[in-house]
Amino acid sequence: MKTKLCPKCGKELPLDNFAICKSTKSGRYSYCKTCKAAYMRKYRKENPEKIREIWKRSYDKHKDERLAHGREYSAKTYPLVRNEKYLKKYGISYDDKLEMLERVGYKCEICGSSVSIEDSQLDHDHATGDVRGILCMNCNMLLGHAKDDVNILKRAIEWLS
Q: Which residues fall within 8 angstroms of residue 16, CB to CB, at 6 or more apart?
């Protein structure tokens, strides 16, 4: 096994203990990873403005790449996360919600207004967790504000009459 001497701590260590550096002849940094980390901690503490400027330049330089990567990552993982959310919270899959929407013709089951997959709400019984149907946000909030209590809704109807 090849080794290298760290000039900072004086220890002879395996090459794996030295970070890769393409600009040096040996292909490794002079200091071992432990000494380099200690030096960098001290440098960052003593030069916060320089570090902030370096980070800002790097952020600006790679902003478009980072945003593109984020969009790609979201596009890959969102369907999985969304499906897990529906399974965990409602006991149905995202595809089940799509089927329910198609069955009701993309309409709220209370007021009949059009709803899309994005703005449709899964109405469920808070006591049992059973899914009751597809609602628009307003009708779902109506039931939520009435605490799913039929008597409150009946009194509201009487009030309006």
A: none
